[in-house]
Design a protein that fits this description.
Family: Belongs to the outer membrane factor (OMF) (TC 1.B.17) family.
Keywords: Cell outer membrane, Coiled coil, Membrane, Transmembrane, Transmembrane beta strand, Transport
Helix content: 55-70%
Number of helices: 9
Pfam families: OEP
GO molecular function, one term: efflux transmembrane transporter activity
InterPro entries: OMP_efflux, TolC-like
Strand order of the largest sheet: 2-5-7-8
Radius of gyration: 41 Å
Distance between the termini: 49 Å
Amino acid sequence: MGSEGGEVLLLLFMVLPLTREEAVKVALENNLSLRSGAVDQTMALVEIDKAYANLYPKITLNANYSYLSPIPVMKFQMVPNQPPVEIPMGRSRNYSLGAQLTQPIFTWGNLYRLIRMSKLKYELGDLELRRQRAELIRNVRNSYDGCLLAREFLKLLDQTRERLKRYHASIKERYDAGLAPRYDLIRTEAELARNESQIIEAENNLKLAKDGLKMLLNIDEEIELTDEIGSDSFEVDLDSALSHALTHRWEVRKIELSRRLAEIGLRSAVASWLPTAFGAVNYNYKKPYQFTEDEWGGSWVFTIGLSWPIFTGFSKKSQIAEAHLSLKKIRILEELIKDGIEFEVKSAYLRLKKARAMIEAQKKVMLQAEETRRMIEERYNSGLAKSIELLDGELVYAQARIGYLKARIEYDQAYNDLMLALGKEE
């Protein structure tokens, strides 16, 4: 007995209650794509540091040891008829310590352009991460609402089953008393069987909807939805929405940054034709310092150099042409993206408007169906209505209720889509 109680307690702890916004929070914390994007942004910051590093001097230290054998010897005939004087050209053991410092002096702004390009790439990555975040929020909210609709549908079918059981008991009592035809009893039993199959399908749909939401949340625990289908109404002005989207959408800002990046790339391609200047300082400390003395000694070398790529196989010309074409393509895409955003906002706005009208219409239909069902029940209890009218009234109400719930969900999802189309992240 204690074991069974422990299993029940464990199952209770494994169920995670979630509101709509808590689901969004869990998804933002667990989503692997967002985690990967955050790592990419950290890498982009490293690239900015690497770009700044090009401005600083580079210092290199080196140390060498070499053993020379045999040693070259120079012979000089100093005194006639005497053996020549031999002078060794070096020593067997050779040591060398050195340091080199190099510094770019003038690069026509290319180093600063590298820094600007790395910063723009970081901003582009940040915009992409924010876009992914906003899409995830929209998807989680829509998925949560889909789960709510599946749950309400199942709840409605359960309520319908209870009413059908009550109708069946009443009709069977009348049939046994000879007051109702067998057709009415068979029809009620058929509706009960159909209702049972619908409940099984609704349970499966609810499970699948929850599994889809759990995939977005990246969790394995069972979840319990604690929110209800919303009843809020939102006022949206189309002109204001279009203006906001064309200013704040990620795609607009991304294409603007891409254009700036292409312009910098074009200037860099042009500057690659020009000469660059650099400076270098070398210090060498070695032993032997001279051929004849096995002692340590050092020397300095100061260099100022100029590098000019006179001919590179026409690759520079191709780079400039490519940069020009990239900039031209981006300017074309700017117009295309703006047209696409306008269409997306208008579509979402019209969907929202349609869903609002459908809510009002379906609400009236549902209230009328509910009132009709109540009147049929009263007439049936008074013996003035047939059982088939009772069943039809229940079916019409169930369909009207489902239509109203769908309209509510479609309205909330259309609003979520509109917020994403406007470039809003929350």
